[in-house]
Design brief:
alpha/beta, Diaminopimelate Epimerase, Chain A, domain 1, six-stranded parallel sheet, six-stranded mixed sheet, 12 helices, globular, binds guanosine-5'-monophosphate, binds manganese (II) ion
Length: 324
């Protein structure tokens, strides 16, 4: 952490670009917002830049906290002294903003993915951390930054989402210690949890229903595959769709050990999300398809059609899972 701390402290560092990953989740957004407040506390100027839509269950993070998400276009004229990619395992995960990142005088990455490609000048990667939010918490402590309710809410969101509400095996005793300290900042705990977990639109539940209809089980029901094709998306006529959490629903099925979710993301491309229940290293599988992630949660993007992705993945998984 010392290297990144030193970098942030440098007097020449005034304008700081903060980059979450594309198709943002609770960890990347909560961590970026926490880091934003820290940069402000240090008397510097943060710019959080994201061109994607924020999932509806995370929109609350931007209400009344004074943090605005800017687009690449609106910061085209700004020269950044430091760019920090947060919760991004590789450059591809913010490829639409790569020009801004590379234009900055200095670059850094704060992340917890073991597959992180160390693409920045200073890389602070700790794969023991359950969420990147834990690292931002440590950084706030190191700078003696007062933990406001806004920071508490943002970092709690980062941690509670990346640990599946403290159920996944990335959760460690320190995770609970941090969560306890964050809860003491007195943010609106009920509001955050309702917004995150009890806030699914009817459209999303209908979508979930349709995705479940595509369920196929392989290798004695140990591997489940679900898909969301371009045609399904069009037929649902959803003005906005968010698929966050769908893959976890499928993993909840008794006996299922690995879930693969392939969904259309536009421009002929599909995104693949994989989840494991037990000790199976999906990041290795994802790496074969030029992606990455964690052991139990990994993914990649592909220009192949759904059937081709499915076939290749079943072949890769078949090396570990056999019909019995
Ligand atoms: P999700 O399925 O939630 O999008 O991603 C699961 C995990 O895999 C996350 O930690 C995410 O960062 C990682 N991941 C997903 N897609 C990619 C990818 O294309 N490249 C890399 N390096 N990691 C990915
Ligand atoms: Mn994360």
């Amino acid at each position: 952490m010392q290297a990144i701390k030193g970098l942030i402290e440098e007097e020449s560092v005034e304008r700081v670009l903060i980059l979450p990953h594309n198709i943002p989740d609770g960890d990347t957004l909560g961590s970026c917002i926490g880091f934003y407040h820290l940069i402000k506390h240090l008397g510097k100027t943060p710019y959080m830049v994201l061109n994607d839509h924020v999932p509806s269950n995370l929109a609350f993070l931007f209400e009344d906290c004074g943090v605005k998400c800017l687009t690449s276009e609106s910061v085209a004229e700004v020269s950044f002294d430091l760019a920090v990619a947060i919760d991004c395992g590789e450059k591809k995960l913010f490829e639409d903003r790569i020009g801004l990142f590379e234009r900055a005088v200095k670059t850094a990455s704060i992340d917890h993915h073991p597959t992180n490609t160390r693409f920045a000048e200073v890389n602070w990667i700790d794969s023991e951390a359950a969420a990147t939010g834990e690292l931002i918490f440590d950084l706030c402590e190191a700078f003696s930054c007062p933990l406001t309710p806004a920071i508490g809410e943002a970092l709690y969101t980062a941690i509670v989402t990346d640990t599946g509400s403290f159920r996944y095996s990335n959760t460690r005793p320190k995770t609970f210690d941090i969560a306890k300290t964050l809860m003491k900042t007195d943010f609106d705990f009920n509001r955050v949890n309702v917004a995150l977990f009890q806030n699914k639109s009817l459209e999303k539940l209908r979508l979930l229903n349709r995705v479940f209809d595509t369920l196929q089980l392989h290798f004695s029901n140990r591997v489940a595959v679900v898909t969301l094709s371009q045609e399904m998306m069009a037929s649902l006529a959803l003005s906005e769709y968010d698929t966050d959490g769908i893959v976890e629903f499928v993993r909840d099925i008794s006996g299922v050990e690995v879930v693969v979710f392939i969904r259309y993301i536009g421009n002929g491309a599909h995104k693949v999300s994989m989840r494991a229940k037990y000790d199976f290293d999906l990041s290795v599988v994802a790496s074969r398809f030029h992606g990455g992630g964690h052991k139990k949660a990994a993914g990649f993007k592909s220009d192949w059609p759904i059937e081709q992705i499915e076939k290749a993945l079943l072949e890769a998984l078949g090396e570990a899972f056999h019909d019995v």
